[in-house]
Design brief:
This protein has helices at about 5-10, 55-70, 75-90, 95-105, 110-130, 165-180, 195-205, 220-230, 240-250, 275-290, 310-320, 340-355, 390-395, 410-420, 435-445, 475-480; strands at about 20, 25, 35-40, 45-50, 135-140, 145-155, 155-160, 185, 215, 235-240, 260, 270, 300-305, 360-365, 380-385, 400-410, 425, 425-430, 450, 465, 470, 485-490. It is an alpha/beta fold. Bound molecules: nicotinamide-adenine-dinucleotide (NAD). It comes from Tenacibaculum skagerrakense.
Length: about 500
């Protein structure tokens, strides 16, 4: 794959991204800009608005103006526009996947197979779900009264998303928000703005009325903060880091904003000797290193029953050593670039920490210089054997291609190790014992438990974490409940 390919083959090269406000693409009010990098070659390829509270105010005003009519559109009308957006995303799959891969560093094959199809499914799912999301009625027998519970849209809501699954997570918030009749001020990550920018064009093409969705680009502590601090934006759906989530909660608390916070994870992958070994091994490679380990659901702490520990160690190292680190656009690539230079440095710092903590690096641990992309941010998939679950490597979210492994003796010990962490997003368990499946699942402190699989999602099911992994749930009717206010009307007849 040549350097030339990265620089010159796409129409969006060197293109400046603009804010999408009231259906128009506009420059930021203060005309300040931020560089946007292509992490696979470590070079700037465009600029994005460094928006300020003035831009957020314009976006709010557009959204507020659109709300009076959008909130009164019929469910069929909304559903049909969401379906059109879903279809257009599908039609532009190749183009969007290339944009996502270039902006984020993820393998193109992953963007094509997962990220972009899922962004389309997010719209299609809520296009259908909104038509099923009924208000409730309760007859108060003996009191000659009937109670209605209306589910009304909130008004203008804020959606803020991270860089790891850019369009996937951005649309996972926007689709239910607008399906429920709200208007949105949304901010994607400043590190991966491209596909969110392209979504604006798609919404116009699908006939989404002006102002229903407004996309403002910029930094978290200015543009993001201005959304959270805006007194009239009444709900915030946020996905990102735990410390950012805490900051958002502090800003929002005095205004009693409704919050959905999907935060970090440090997910256990518990492997019992009685599992289907080959399936476990193959999936464990994915749950460890998919998207360079930059998925909040990656199983970054692997606990293995002692009796198969040595065998697993050998087989896992062998499989991982076969993964190809390379340019995202190369179809052979399994591990692309990390998202940014600062993130690469952060992830690398854990390799130094491993050495201090006497972790044993069984594989990887080194930066990779990829041909024709020597300045890109590549790191080997890395396996570290640790002795103590309290080490920083097992307690802190690394969010990169690093996993730790550790043996356990009993089911109780596995559960203690899995739960002894501040996070509680997801957990994976490998076993063919039904009784153990239920016992362990019930006791794991996690919002999502996968048994003999990983990352399988039915969009009707609740998604989210416990402990420091967040507050609230997305997915299915949970998301529609979040984006609506229930109102009780009691009628005495
Ligand atoms: P981040 O918290 O740095 O940023 C997320 C978003 O918040 C970005 O758009 C950013 O600009 C914005 N932001 C930052 N500071 C802000 C502030 N003060 N006010 C308002 N907005 C602000 O996270 P990141 O580095 O982009 O993403 C990685 C993190 O996201 C990891 O911790 C990962 O686990 C988490 N994540 C969680 C889930 C989940 O569903 N639980 C999914 C994906 C990623």
């Amino acid at each position: 794959m040549s350097r030339f390919f990265f620089h010159h083959s796409h129409i969006y090269n060197e293109m400046n991204i603009k804010n999408y406000i009231n259906g128009e693409f506009v420059n930021p009010v203060k005309n300040q800009w931020i560089d946007n990098y292509n992490p696979s070659i470590g070079e700037v390829y465009g600029q994005i608005p460094n928006s300020t509270e003035e831009d957020i105010e314009l976006a709010y005003e557009a959204a507020n103006k659109a709300f009076s009519s959008w909130s009164k559109t019929t469910l069929d009308e909304r559903s049909s526009i969401l379906s059109k957006i879903a279809q257009l995303i599908k039609d532009k799959l190749d183009f969007l996947a290339e944009a996502e891969s270039k902006d984020n560093g993820k393998p193109l094959s992953l963007a094509k197979a997962v990220d972009i199809p899922r962004a389309s499914s997010n719209f299609q799912f809520f296009a259908n779900a909104i038509t099923q999301f009924a208000s409730e009625a309760h007859e108060s027998v003996g009191l000659d009264a009937v109670n209605l519970t209306l589910r009304q849209p909130i008004g203008v809501v804020g959606c803020i998303s991270p860089w790891n699954l850019p369009l996937y997570l951005f649309t996972w918030k926007i689709a239910p928000a607008i399906a429920a009749g709200n208007c949105v001020v949304a901010k994607p990550s400043e590190i991966t703005p491209m596909t969110s920018y392209l979504l604006g064009e798609i919404c116009n093409e699908a006939g989404l009325p002006k102002g229903v969705l407004n996309i403002v680009h910029g930094l978290g502590n200015s543009a993001g903060q201005a959304i959270v601090a805006h007194p009239k934006i009444k709900a915030i759906s946020f996905t990102g880091g735990t410390s950012t989530g805490a900051h958002i909660a502090r800003t929002a608390a005095p205004m009693f904003k409704k919050l959905s916070l999907e935060l970090g994870g440090k997910n256990p992958n518990i492997i019992f000797a009685d599992c289907d070994y080959n399936n476990m091994l193959e999936t464990t490679v994915k749950s460890s290193f998919a998207n360079q380990g930059q998925i909040c659901l990656c199983g970054s702490r692997i606990f293995i029953e002692e009796t198969i520990y040595e065998k697993f160690k050998q087989d896992f190292i062998k499989k991982v050593s076969q993964l190809k680190v390379g340019i995202p656009f190369d179809s052979e690539t399994n591990i692309g670039a990390l998202v940014s230079k600062p993130h690469l440095e952060k992830v690398k710092s854990y390799i130094a920490i491993a050495e201090e903590e006497k972790g044993k690096i069984l594989f990887g641990g080194k930066e990779v210089k990829v041909d024709n992309a020597e300045n890109g941010y590549y790191l080997q998939p890395t396996i570290i054997e640790v002795e103590d679950n309290q080490c920083r490597l097992n307690q802190e979210e690394i969010f990169g291609p690093i996993v730790t492994i550790m043996p356990f003796k009993t089911e109780e010990e596995a559960l203690t190790l899995a739960n002894d962490v501040s996070y509680g997003l997801s957990a994976t368990v490998w076993t063919n014992n039904l009784k153990r499946t239920m016992k362990v699942s019930q006791q794991l402190q996690a919002g999502i438990v996968w048994i003999n699989t990983w990352l399988m999602r039915d969009l009707r099911t609740p998604f989210g974490g416990v402990k420091n992994s967040g507050v609230g749930r997305e997915g299915g009717f949970e998301a529609l409940r979040f984006f609506t206010e229930p109102k009780n009307i009691c009628i005495k007849y």
